[in-house]
């Protein structure tokens, strides 16, 4: 009913459905809604013998039809805006009463309910048809100097849409600053500019068989302003979301890390709205033949400030690693670089290490700077913590970092995660309470790095019903 802009008829329609279902046998049946412009038809279809039923009190028309073994009980309810002149009666009644305000309020709610700029033209067209007009066409332009292009077309009789589209293709669309007459065949039609914040976004075109009452023009003009503002907000949101997605991509490796001779996998999932840049990041890159560096980190907070520290961290790690700095020295210099940012700085947790392939597995040197514990899984199912916690970055100038060494035998797995995993919340419980992450990892014996990462990701997702409010990054290394 909302999609058909028939909210005022909803109570009668609901009672009509109850009446039809009330005389239906206790057998399976289907309820079907059909929109015919001037009215809505409700059908209850079931397999049954021929019979009759009483008149639904709210129905304008009703009946029973049979197709094969299917009996269909149907009833119709008239909608405002039909050819019978109900539109004029509705406008005359509501323009001076609360119905007009209710209609505008419903329209505003529908328009505000989407941040997709392509959905706004569809919503406004289905709001005004058939209440204010028989058909509606919305034209938009990305920029004021660009030609208008058709964005959405709606007619109370869907079979007439193609013919109307052909007619409008041959009709000049006004692009002035005020309402204008649209010369579209025999239709009485008007064009209303869609303007928001001083910028032209498009044109709203309406057509009727009869002339437009003054009340309808006022309503259409008001709806045009609301639609334009909703469209502008949606465009601004989409532009911001696209910019932040591009920024987020720039803070991560340009492609999935390629590590020949090393079984590895990374999972990264940003949380929250698309207009937020998260603070989690990862990296895995080669230094020389058989040697790689890896990092998984989490910057405090989200947004541009967090993104600035994320970019600083990832590029500093790569640059210093390729300059030959040891793991602990890289972390120490990154700490100083973050502190040098002053008030713009955000503290950072980081697990950073170097991997060297050997004949007996992998030798790893690593530093865990305030980061969630790194875990090792043995083929026997034993899980242990492999790095002691050190100071997080961006807080203490005097922090001194030292490397720890670790060997992974063939089949051993190293797991690093951000707190989007360990602090996944369900009620008062966290996923890592009572060693929850270690227990999950213990169930991953004999799995590949990809399978381990996906198992952890699914466990995080299934731990609570509500979506995660934090970014998530998982890095898995497995000794071949």
Automatic annotation (TrEMBL):
Coiled coil: none annotated. GO terms for molecular function: phosphatase activity. Keywords: Hydrolase. Residues 262-479 form the PPM-type phosphatase domain. Pfam families: SpoIIE. Signal peptide: none annotated. It comes from the Bacteria. This is PPM-type phosphatase domain-containing protein. It comes from Planotetraspora thailandica.
